[in-house]
Amino acid sequence: MAYETLKEGLSDAGFTLPTPFTDDGTAVHHDALAANVAFLRDAGASLFVPCGNTGEYYSLTNDERVNVVRTVVDAVGDDATVVGGVGGSTKNALSLLDRYEAAGADGVLVMYPGHTYVHEDGLCSYYERIADATDLGVVLYKRGPRLSLANLAPLSERENVVCVKFAQNDVDLFATAVSETPGDVVWSTGVAERFVPAYALEGATGFTTGIGNFAPEPVLALADAVQAGDLDRARRIRDGLRPYEDLRDESGVESDFAAANNVPAVKYGQELAGLYGGPVREPLAELPDDVKRRCREYYDRMTAMDLD
User: Is there a contact between 283 and 265 (Cβ–Cβ < 8 Å)?
Assistant: First the structure.
């Protein structure tokens, strides 16, 4: 896919796909994955991100990652955009590039580095080596300070660096990044629907979604409203989606870790929509019954709201 075409695809709602596992969690349920993607395609989705954080990237083997990407590519058809997550060591990330390209992916999302000890120059080298090793479009995932604005600027000028997924909840920093980054990249909001209108005002043309996996209509309506510049409608839809988003951001029962509910709440939402979500893998945990009850309440409310 040509880079300009890829940029057009990234300027939309990107569906960060959960990975459905078999009931015992030991294998990927590929038939369910294909059915879930077909459901989204029928709803009008056109940008898909398998093997990201919502896809439990760090709970997958490389073979599982490649097969997930292949299943998604086969399910979406030729006129959709697929961007697969890569990460871990440089060698591990590089090992996935050719395999993703052979599977039919259009681009890669470079997962946020998780090494305990890092250096600014070493981080820049990490991203440069990945970008240099592929002709696929590269999406940079800014989830914290390790991808600094100082490194983001030169990386943005590489031809195949096409997008920045900005997932820090800091509109001021985002505005600075947009104004100080020289490359022609697409800016995508990675903090979900709650802040889409605010980031759109500062230059984001796309955003990624988790709840869109089970409620695509309101999420796509939000994207339409933002693209049309109808921020009143965008805020109204955002307000209807926010209770479920706030629940996903909670740490969970007897847990102090932020957003521990994130992925299991998306998978349970898929079950509410008549899809297959399946279990999560450790280090995640399933939702307790009282949280599931709230999920049902918020799901019913947001799927019944007026989208006009």
Answer: no
Burial track 42-60 (b if 16+ CB lie within 10 A, e otherwise): eeebbbbbbbbbbbbbebb
Predicted structure pTM score: 0.97
pLDDT band at residue 67 using 50, 70 and 90 as cut-offs: very high
pLDDT computed for residue 183 by the predictor: 97
Rg from Cα positions in the chain: 18
CB atoms within 10 A of CB 284: 16
Domain residue extents for the chain: 3-303
d(CA 112, CA 99): 20
The CA dihedral of 276, 39, 70, 33, to the nearest 10 degrees, is: 0
| Superfamily covering domain 3-303 | Aldolase class I (3.20.20.70)
What is the overall mean pLDDT for the chain? 97
Report whether pLDDT(192) > 90.
no
